[in-house]
Amino acid sequence: MNAHEVNFDGLVGPTHNYGGLSYGNVASQSNSQAASNPKEAALQGLGKMKALMEMGFKQGVFAPQERQDVAALRSLGFSGTDAEVIAQAARESMPLLAACSSASSMWTANSCTVSPSADTADGRVHFTAANLNCKFHRSIEHPTTSRVLRAMFADERRFAHHAALPAVGQFGDEGAANHTRFCKGYGDAGVEFFVFGRSAFDARYPAPQRYPARQTLEACQAVARLHGLSAEGVVYAQQNPAVIDQGVFHNDVISVGNGEVLFYHEDAFLETDKVLAELDAKLGKRGGRFQAVRVPRSAVGVEDAVRSYLFNSQLLSRPDGSMLLVVPEECRSNANVWNYLSGLTAGSGPIREVKVFDLKQSMQNGGGPACLRLRVALKEDELTAVNPGVILTPELHATLTAWVEKHYRDRLSEADLADPQLLVECRTALDELTQILKLGAVYPFQLN
Hints:
- One of its GO terms (molecular function) is N-succinylarginine dihydrolase activity.
- It is an enzyme of class 3 (hydrolase).
- This is N-succinylarginine dihydrolase.
- InterPro entries: AstB_sf (IPR037031), SuccinylArg_d-Hdrlase_AstB (IPR007079).
- By secondary structure, the chain is an alpha/beta fold.
- 35% of the residues lie in helices and 18% in strands.
- Strands 2-1-15 form a three-stranded mixed beta sheet. Strands 3-4-5 form a three-stranded mixed beta sheet, with helices on one face. A three-stranded mixed beta sheet has the order 6-7-8, sandwiched between helices.
- Strand 7 (191-196), helix 8 and strand 8 (234-238) form a beta-alpha-beta unit.
- Helix 16 runs antiparallel to helix 17 (420-436).
- The radius of gyration is 21 Å and the shape is globular.
- The model has no long low-confidence stretch (mean pLDDT 95).
């Protein structure tokens, strides 16, 4: 049966702002307190979606969260009407208001982990929402994320949904940003690659010293169990703690995989040779031919990789078997990175083309092309079962563009988060969006 990889890109929400909330994410922290442009951010994201759709890639849309999250503020002791809650939070704890106003759900690579039906014991596509418990502003996302996923993938015969893992440090889970999958074809049984930063219970594994390791080995193992994955189809690898301490907060900032190819930095992993050998052996038993494309530190240093987000790129398969690398404009602006990419595509390797996108609004907040999309491998009957309202078409793109133009501000500063009208604008926009995408009631204000 034919199968496809569908990229579901996060639609940037109306409260997109630079709160500098993500300790360990260099771009997020360095742009803290700068004024953002939510309208431009959403249109840049939609522009990437449209361009890839027109190139023949299947593209979907993932709805943003309701923000400000007044319920979260109430749980922290703020009271009164919604407007009074926001005013009190702005007066007494602006950092909390900023956290509850974050549009970070735009990075849907963190929304969940997905295992295609070819890999799972029950033959269904499995989704586990990420608890994201390392950062408060992201830890409040998973209840709405789960409702949105169920509205998108509702057919219980084909799709299985799991709640987020326990919201404690031992099971810190950042979703698909630390997970990729290798396979001969998207419908074939593959090898799922889980990358962790530390172990919660086994002291033999080292840990970073400066920045937190957000993904644990135990979380990876739990997701694999929930999804019914076999030991023959799973590889676990530890991310190099030294690169986490240099700002590589997720594995998708230092490597990206697709099909039979892993594109990775020389310093990405501990025990690299052992990891590559295991991937090669296990993929070989499933009919694939593993290919590792190593980027040497002599060509691109870790600092260059972090600043350019070279590895936070999309690696996409063309019908002829060659691969396209989708990178942010920052890669072209970095001389070392651009020199490397120019040589890469001129060679005989699997990556034959590089396409550059302007995603500055997302990049300044710490997320590139790979952060913005959730990859879901679907067989034809599964794709047919997806809520058609979230599959991008030229008509839907035009509708969403008009929706953004109508509802989004073109400037947002920290002080603007105290404006109670912003919540009204967000809810009005999202109520209309759920009708456009045919999601039903998924937001707290719609349910309550």
